[in-house]
Amino acid sequence: ANAMFARVIEEQGFEACYVTGAGIANMQLGAPDIGLTTLTEIADTVARIADAVDLPLMVDADTGFGNALNMRRTVRVLERAGAAGLQIEDQVFPKKCGHFDGKDVVPLADMVAKIKAAVDARRDGDLQIIARTDARAVLGLDAALDRAQPGDKDRNVPLIDTGHVQPEGPGQPE
Questions:
Q1: Which end of the chain is more exposed for a tag (fewer CB within 10 A), N or C?
Q2: Burial, 131: exposed, middle or buried (Cβ in 10 Å; 0-12, 13-18, 19+)?
């Protein structure tokens, strides 16, 4: 969540650093990850971290701060700040940390448009795009798996968040 933590990560021999949105909200605002951080605050943090370490930075870009048009700007700003990859999520705004209750997800078509916008906005084709869905907690595992499929050729990695869901299947509590 800050340049000092990133230096420790680098000194411990890790090959990359994840810049967490929750960490930025917690450390800089003293607040939970409920959509209070701005693109500018995240970009400033990423730029400070990029100046302090030589590690590739995977950056939590939240929801892209709006629709597909906003996602395009988010990618450009964070790439310019020093991101080597971005994680984008399918929550509605204002978003909540994936481990919190009470979240909701955007329609699938909206998220696919955001993924396409993120990929098209990259100046460096090596910038990694991770599309994360919080659908499991909201719509169930099958919907989350369905959301992990669209746009496969566009994004680099699908990610299904499993925070705050009950195990599913035979013998599991309802």
A1: C
A2: buried
From the CB of residue 12, how many other CB atoms can be counted at a distance below 10 Å?
A: 7
Q: In 26-134, where does DSSP find H-type helix?
A: 39-52, 68-81, 108-121
What is the pTM (predicted TM-score) of this model?
A: 0.83
pLDDT in tens, 100-149: 666 779 998 899 899 999 999 999 999 999 888 888 888 888 888 888 77
d(CA 156, CA 136): 20
Buried b (16+ CB within 10 A) or exposed e, 23-49: bbbbebeeeebbbebebeebbebbbeb
Place of tokens 């080597």: 84
Q: What is the CA radius of gyration of the chain?
A: 16
Q: How many CB atoms lie within 10 A of CB 71?
A: 26
**Sequence-distant (≥ 6) Cβ neighbours of residue 84 within 8 angstroms:** 16, 56, 57, 58, 126, 127, 128
Structure tokens at 123: 């100046």
d(CA 6, CA 16): 9
Structure tokens at 64: 């892209």
